[in-house]
Amino acid sequence: MEVAYSFAGLVVGFVVGLTGIGGGALMTPILIVVFGIAPVVAVSTDLLYAAITKFGGMWSYARKKMVHWKVVGLLLAGSIPGSLLTLNYLKGLEALESIEHLMNMTLGVSLVLTSIAVFLRNRIREKALSLENHPLADRARRIRPYATVLMGLLLGALVTLSSVGAGALGTAMLILLYPRMLMPGIVGTDLVHAVVLTSVAGAGHYTMGNVDLSLLLYLLIGSLPGVFLGSHVGVRLSPKVMQPIMGSILFAIGLRFVLAG
Prior knowledge:
This protein is mostly helical. The chain is built from ten helices and no strands. The radius of gyration is 18 Å and the shape is globular. Belongs to the 4-toluene sulfonate uptake permease (TSUP) (TC 2.A.102) family. InterPro entries: TM_pro_TauE-like, TSUP/Inactive_protease-like.
């Protein structure tokens, strides 16, 4: 079984390196559906898995000064309280069945929203840019910091419950709120926020005894070379081909969890 966990890490790491999408969105469903791991353990372990695997990319963007730290701060002002409140709520649920039902449903909704974000990312950017000269654009820019905090609050709850949403969904929200921000800056900003958020949420789940450290280790053993291989193959493939494929897969998986819930 240990080899199977590492192989799953290899496959998911390869897909992440290939497309930049699908870390938590693929790993958590695989752990639940393929390996039969309890949702609370799968989500909790995947949060720390995401924090560790994304750290290298975060550091690279930070060194290249492709991170908008003010935006990161606004996101964290919402997402950290959102995560802590969600963890506190989970601690108050005594029945394991209630926790797992909530996590399964949230996972399904998060996957469907993420798939939509993958499909519509370019259209979201085009639409947001077209509204920049709208009469209400100045008012929208004034409330943008508050909208960013609110977006962080939503992501904090979703990610803590499902381990999904910090990547593709966070990127889509940033594109909507900051359409003139260059894509490397959006990716770098989202990556830093995701690492901090998943670290806090994962640490919270760890204190509740939900994290399987041996499972985490085996996943990492497979995923690190997988990301390396996928990133080298990915430069030869068009995003126009890969994004619809990934979006379709995530939508199908999300629908399965929603209907099962």
